[in-house]
Amino acid sequence: MSFYTSLNGMKNAQTSLGVIAHNISNSETYGFKRSRTEFSEIVAGSALTNPRMIQGIGASVESITQNFALGPVEQTGSALDLAITGDGFFTTRSAVDGTTLYTRAGSFSMSDTGHITDSAGNRLQVFPVDANGQVTGNGISDAQVPAVNAAGSEFAGVTITETGLVQASYADGSVEPIGAVALASFISPNGLKKVGSANWESTGLSGAASYGSPGSGAYGSLLSGALERSNVDIAEELVGLITAQRNFQANAKAIDTATQISQTVINLRS
Predict the structure, then answer these.
(1) Out of 80, 88, 108, 203, which could bridge 183 as a Cys pair, Cβ 3.0 to 4.6 Å?
(2) CB 115 within 8 A of CB 146
(3) 119 CB contacts (<8 Å, ≥6 apart)?
(4) Are 130 and 55 within one domain?
């Protein structure tokens, strides 16, 4: 029994090492959120077992929990670099298959079609607005800046306010509202599914996304010209790395000790 208990402990330590290694390797990934491994005790006993004689049979990985704490904010100066100074996620949609993704990495740029996209070409989602910049509906759509305005003047630049209003400026000096950035929130963010590139997808565990404007309710404001860095604390991860390594070594030593005891018993019988 001790062989399997210790072997299970080694596998758990290996899982913990993998999670920590993943955190450390993404310490420079914008919008990345660290994870931690949580374990639970395993016991076995029937209705007739004396509760004072129940012996534990090891531990199992209960969950790998994501930590959505705010990471450090780095100033970049680019108008389309956005950081959320609170809760919420940017919403993007793939132009290829229509997949909806959620992210904290706000590094956006203009595409050749005038869409505001991330590095993978996923399009930022916004609420519709009127000529005064007021939100006029709850539906979201791709953020797209016209190359020329109604007067025929060419596009000159784009800015995004702390309340998420996307404004395009043109060569004739006019400024036109394009939309308002839609932030998403979830009743259980830990239920979001990682899909890579600091993106998540909603699941049955996270619940459906609720959309709102930056700076309203529980949604954080936007900071233009800045990006949110990874929330990984290298010092904390290195301590966890040492602990996981010691746990692995201790379980390996327990297996070695059980082997020696078994060998001693076999020698006694012979």
Answers:
(1) 88
(2) no
(3) 107, 109, 197
(4) no
